[in-house]
Amino acid sequence: RKALTALASVYDSGRRLWPRRQDRGHETVTIEVAQLRAMSIDAAVDGSGAKIPRVWVLARENDREAKLALLSALEVNRMLWEGTAFVCVDLGFGGDPAPCDAELESNCVK
Fold first, then answer.
1. If we measure between CA atoms, which residue out of 67, 61, 53 comes closest to residue 10?
2. In 34-100, beta strands by DSSP E
3. In 3D, which of 61, 62, 66 has the Cα closest to residue 13?
4. Any bridge partners for residue 65, and if so which?
5. Which helix (H) or strand (E) holds 6?
6. pLDDT tens-digit profile of 52-80?
7. Distance CA 109, CA 9 (A)
8. How far apart are CA 78 and CA 84, in angstroms?
9. pLDDT tens digit sequence for 18-46
């Protein structure tokens, strides 16, 4: 169950980077999750054994690809400075989904 919840969180985060659009319904994107797959699900979700606080980040690589990575605050700040499109991912999906944008109703969770 933890693994499915984590994967659902990653897909939900991908939808934040690529909101649903009528004119792009035929297109697909690839989300790389190699770092997540290399860890036990408990360690990935709970952060057990981490020496430095880190956060899961899904970063847009280009128009069709994103990569999930476990990053430090410094690495996240570097992405901010560089203008990289990204979202932080809660693999435990502990909270409500992101609020919808009134202008982009298509990305609202119903």
1. 67
2. 55-60, 65-71, 86-89
3. 66
4. 30
5. helix 2-17
6. 788 999 999 999 999 999 999 999 999 99
7. 13
8. 9
9. 888 777 778 889 999 999 999 888 888 87
Beta bridge partners of 89: 56
- At 7, give phi and psi (nearest 5°): -65, -40
Q: Which of 87, 88, 89, 110 is nearest to 99 (CA)?
A: 110
Give dist(CA 80, CA 30) in Å, integer: 22
Q: Counting runs of H as helices and runs of E as strands, what totals does the chain give?
A: 4, 4
**The tokens of 14 are what?**
């991908």
Q: How long is the chain?
A: 110
Residue 86 near residue 67 (C-beta atoms within 8 A): no
pLDDT over threshold 50, residue 100: no
Rounded to whole angstroms, the Cα distance separating 57 from 77 reads 12
